[in-house]
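Example 193, ligand fe (iii) ion.
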Amino acid sequence: MVDYEQLCEKLKAMLTEKRYQHSLGVMDTALQLALRYGCDTGKAKLAGLLHDCAKNYDVPEMLTLCEQYGVVLDKVTAITPGLIHQVLGAEMARREFGAHDEEVLSAIRCHTTGKPDMSLLEKILYLADFTEPGREWFEGLDALRELTASNLDDAMRLALDLAIKDVLFKGQPMHIDTANARNQLIISKMKNA
Ligand code: FE
Ligand code: FE
């Protein structure tokens, strides 16, 4: 049995209040999506709650922790602060929060980049992170919330498009998993058309 009270207490101490509230929002949204789409609710809640557990470290701390834990970062992740926390977060969820479920850890590990052939849980976490009620408004959010309620793959496609646009706008490198995730969704939609 997962002791949420204990997990929340520990998480709250590691995150800013804003980030902690976001985590609770993602947990709740992931739970709603799990109910809607027939995914394991316990896994969705846990992934939602813990997904950003490594988010509030500064970059040198993140890199030190990665080294300590033996977490190997690919080239693009290593130079993109916003990406490190998904990989480190999965490892911390396991080591610090006792989350050993591989599906949960895998969802945390790709919650920012996405990847091709995402599982239902991975899609749910990715979209819950994007659409939780506390999210600051951005162009496309309303459409994304609507699609998330009706078709997860179409919602993923829009979410990836928005994420890619953001990366281009900010001049950041694009992780290859994000490009592959988008291409794969387009290819499978063409096949099923
Ligand atoms: Fe995150
Ligand atoms: Fe998040």
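Summary: The mean pLDDT is 97.
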